[in-house]
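Propose amino acids for all 340 sites.
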């Protein structure tokens, strides 16, 4: 399934690239100078009709994205037409530019109509979700019609929110929940602080050097570095605010926003130390920041762990590393078979 999705997105991107490349070449053919208006109109028609059609064939028809994204394909086609055509051939774009406000109003109307549904779905999911991002994902998925797009938006939004507001937030467990952190004893905070400092210094130096050749390139590199810094800080707060949680029915395994898996307590089989081979290379999902797992948890049946951007992996065992390994073992052994 994952390979099929990747192929569909790949073919869509490749087809759009070929279409844009062909239209770019036609726009600059010497033989089209005599009839610039006809050529420009033909190029615009090819893009405005072609890109939404490719999006429908590869993504909408195969249910990778919702049909609501077709207006986005149309707007993208207009932007590409404006970029491809030379300035003296853009006059006809003013005739179709009036469609853009209409499409924007249509998208706004759809957003407002969906906002009430989103709030209702979010409140319902938040009542049972352990963490807010899981409620956000549960509310966005039926509205967008694409689990991968919902996962992408959820990750981007939550990383940004954690980077900007995570400094003042803490996780507050319910009375029936036991919480196990996994970022304190390994010095992860110091490592993040060092990486952030190095990235900041590097960003300033690279900006000062590159600006001698190109001001635009310098600022683009700086914005990219700032985005990477937000991800580093946001990921740290996501790690801190997403501990492993044990409640009456499930063991909620989390590694920030990177991996998540909720294991029913009835599916626990054994908790053991890793073998020598597992200590060298643990091939399944490890709910720990690095190194070998402290514990290997065996499951009675295969379960699906969910990662970044909709990534999935089916596992029968998981690695766990926490700040209090003895406390976790004591808590879990109450739910393990006596033979374990």
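Proposal:
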């Amino acid at each position: 399934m994952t390979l099929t999705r990747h192929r569909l997105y790949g073919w869509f991107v490749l087809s759009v690239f070929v279409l844009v490349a062909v239209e770019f070449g036609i726009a600059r053919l010497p033989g089209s100078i005599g009839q610039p208006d006809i050529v420009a109109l033909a190029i615009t028609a090819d893009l405005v009709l072609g890109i939404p059609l490719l999006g429908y064939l590869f993504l909408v028809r195969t249910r990778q994205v919702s049909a609501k994204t077709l207006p986005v394909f149309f707007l993208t086609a207009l932007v590409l037409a404006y970029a491809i055509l030379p300035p003296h051939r853009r006059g006809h774009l003013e005739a179709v530019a009036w469609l853009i406000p209409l499409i924007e109003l249509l998208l706004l109307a759809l957003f407002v109509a969906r906002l009430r549904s989103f709030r209702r779905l979010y409140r319902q999911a938040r009542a049972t979700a352990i963490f807010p991002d899981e409620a956000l994902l549960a509310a966005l998925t039926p509205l967008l019609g694409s689990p991968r797009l919902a996962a992408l938006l959820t990750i981007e939004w939550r990383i940004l929110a954690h980077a900007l507001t995570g400094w003042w937030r803490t996780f507050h467990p319910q009375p029936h929940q036991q919480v196990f952190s996994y970022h304190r004893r390994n010095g992860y905070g110091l490592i993040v602080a060092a990486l952030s400092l190095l990235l900041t210094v590097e960003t300033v130096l690279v900006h000062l050097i590159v600006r001698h050749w190109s001001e635009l390139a310098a600022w683009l590199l700086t914005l990219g570095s700032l985005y990477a810094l937000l991800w580093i800080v946001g990921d740290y707060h996501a790690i801190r605010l997403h501990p492993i949680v044990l409640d009456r029915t499930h063991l909620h395994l989390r590694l920030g926003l990177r991996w998540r898996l909720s294991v029913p307590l009835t599916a626990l089989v054994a908790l053991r130390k890793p073998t020598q081979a597992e200590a060298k290379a643990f091939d399944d999902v490890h709910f720990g920041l690095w190194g070998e797992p402290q514990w290997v948890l065996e499951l009675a049946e295969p379960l699906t762990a969910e990662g970044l951007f909709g990534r999935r992996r089916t596992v029968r065992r998981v690695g766990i590393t926490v700040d209090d390994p003895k406390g976790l073992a004591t808590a879990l052994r109450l739910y393990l078979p006596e033979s374990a």
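The two ends are 36 Å apart (CA to CA). The chain has four domains: 2-97, 108-168, 183-241, 244-332.
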